[in-house]
Design a protein that fits this description.
This protein has strands at 2-4, 13-19, 28-30, 36-38, 45-55, 58-59, 66-70, 79-81, 86-89, 94-98, 106-112, 123-127, 131-134, 140-149, 161-166, 175-177, 182-183, 192-196, 204-210, 218-223, 227-230, 239-249, 263-266, 270-274, 289-293. By secondary structure, it is mostly beta strands. The strands form six sheets. Strands 17, 19, 20, 22, 23, 24 and 25 form a seven-stranded mixed β-sheet that branches. The radius of gyration is 36 Å and the shape is rod-shaped. The N and C termini lie far apart (80 Å).
Length: 294
């Protein structure tokens, strides 16, 4: 901090004392040659200071005592929640939390769509507490960081964290192959590739396979990407099969699917005829049937 006082004629030097008590017990003395002094305090808190002049004729009396409240520079906040790269439902909200900084008078919180935090940010807010709740909004990945501040300075930004929001139900997948009413010849034990277009807000997909257009009786096979190699183990051939795909995420109530507690969107069923019977067998890429409905 900078300290200044009125200049005194014929002064050879000044004596400035600093102490953490008004009696100046254990005071630290500095003797500048002019009436300006820059001094760094050893610790935060209430400090007292006074000054006197020294000339060739003697030493003057102490000035009136003044006090100054010294604040500690705030440290960088440490993020606590949510877990980095975690996924959340926008309808349930996300609780942002970080460690309290003792020297902070407040905090700034910032959100951005990318980790480099381009300007302007999606959102920036100032607050006195070390947590913040958000709810609703569009889905996607969001990055956040915070910094602490007081009357003296502002800390650096904390390490950025991210979270993913499921903002809406997934879209309906568009089936790609096999084509509708396609006649497919397969070799014994050969798997069939089912493929569909990716959709937003999907965490995984489920392939439904059955023998009636309404798929009232079907098997369900989970896929983490937009295709699935499926062996027709347990399905008699030759025969005509109907298949459909639904996109799933964990954030909403079911609508037209049989899997409870999740949102799914199911595409229209397609038919595929397999005239050559496949031999029942097992391969390393045969998925596990996760649900059967009768």
């Amino acid at each position: 901090a900078a300290f200044n006082w009125s200049d005194v004629a014929y002064a050879q030097r000044y004596r400035v004392e600093f102490a953490d008590n008004p009696a100046f017990t254990g005071a630290t003395a500095v003797e500048p040659m002019n009436n300006l002094l820059f001094y760094a305090f050893s610790s935060p808190g209430a400090w007292h200071w006074r000054v006197r002049v020294e000339t060739a004729c003697g030493t003057g009396a102490w000035s009136t005592v003044r006090s100054v409240d010294v604040s500690e520079e705030p440290s960088v906040p440490v993020a606590l929640a949510p877990v980095d790269a975690s996924a959340h439902c926008a309808s349930n909200g996300v609780f942002i939390d970080w460690q309290d900084v003792p020297a902070a008078d407040g905090y700034e919180l910032e959100f951005a769509p990318t980790p480099d935090f381009p300007s302007p940010p999606i959102f920036r807010a100032s607050m006195s507490n070390s947590d913040y709740g958000i709810s609703g909004g569009n889905g996607g990945t969001f990055f956040w960081r915070t910094r602490s501040l007081n009357a003296c300075s502002t800390s650096a930004w904390s390490t950025a964290r991210s979270f993913f929001l499921y903002g809406a139900a997934p879209d309906v997948p568009r089936l790609v192959s096999p084509a509708d009413q396609q006649l497919s010849f397969i070799r014994e034990q050969a798997p069939i590739r089912f493929e569909w277009a990716p959709v937003k807000n999907a965490e995984f997909y489920e392939v439904l396979l059955g023998k009636d257009p309404g798929l009232t009786s079907h098997t369900v096979h989970r896929a983490n990407s937009t295709h699935l190699w499926l062996n027709l183990t347990g399905h008699p051939l030759p025969s005509t099969y109907y298949w459909s795909v639904r996109a799933v995420n964990p954030c909403h109530s079911a609508n037209n699917a049989t899997k409870g507690g999740v949102t799914t969107r199911t595409s229209s069923a397609k038919t595929t005829t397999f005239p050559t019977k496949a031999t029942v067998g097992t391969t390393s890429n045969v998925p596990t049937t996760v649900k059967n409905t009768a």
